[in-house]
């Protein structure tokens, strides 16, 4: 009954040193991958799985013909008989649209707040900084 867990240990006895080191590195990498938990950030949108209509909590559905839900109403507070204005699907057919923030969840609070940024926000910050530097660089030629 206990022979199965001991089988990997017996296999390690017959391994050469390089294989044993590689196996240990693989175990450490697997342990780190298990610790990496992506934080999910709600966007305030809920998408219909039937017709791709997006319910925006900031807008509600009062802007649509026959819409009775006021702006600022969270999706969870919609009445249970509320239906998709486009295809008439039930409320259960909607999925929340979320953004993943990569990295270790325990590290999200460190730094200047950039650890909690989405990848799109980080790209905008990087390329925006490069654009500003480029304009500043070109403005040096205008000083002549």
Within the largest sheet, what's the order of strands? Answer: 2-1-3
Whole-number average pLDDT? Answer: 82
Which stretches are low in confidence, meaning pLDDT under 50 for 5 or more residues running?
1-7
CATH topology of the largest domain, by name, is Rubrerythrin, domain 2
C-alpha end-to-end distance: 85 Å
Total helices: the number is: 3
Gyration radius from CA atoms, angstroms: 26 Å
Instruction: Tell me what portion of residues adopts beta-strand conformation.
Output: 5-15%
Total strands? 3
Plain-language structure description:
The chain has 144 residues and is an alpha+beta fold. The protein has two domains: 36-107, Rubrerythrin, domain 2, CATH 2.20.28; 110-143. It contains three helices and three strands, in the order H-H-E-E-E-H. A three-stranded antiparallel β-sheet has the order 2-1-3, with no helix packed on it. It is flat, with a radius of gyration of 26 Å. This is Rubredoxin-like domain-containing protein. Residues 43-97 form the Rubredoxin-like domain. Pfam families: Rubredoxin.
């Amino acid at each position: 009954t206990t022979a199965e867990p001991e089988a990997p240990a017996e296999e390690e006895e017959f391994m050469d040193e390089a294989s044993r080191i590689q196996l240990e590195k693989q175990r450490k990498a697997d342990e780190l991958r298990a610790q990496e938990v992506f934080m999910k950030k709600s966007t305030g949108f809920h998408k219909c799985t039937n017709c791709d209509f997006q319910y925006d909590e900031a807008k509600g559905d009062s802007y649509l013909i026959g819409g009775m839900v006021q702006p600022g109403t969270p999706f969870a507070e919609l009445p249970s008989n509320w239906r998709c204005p486009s295809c008439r699907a039930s409320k259960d057919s909607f999925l929340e649209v979320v953004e993943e923030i990569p990295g270790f969840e325990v590290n999200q609070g460190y730094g200047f707040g950039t650890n909690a940024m989405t990848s799109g926000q980080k790209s905008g910050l990087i390329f925006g900084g490069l654009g500003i530097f480029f304009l500043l660089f070109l403005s040096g030629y205008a000083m002549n």
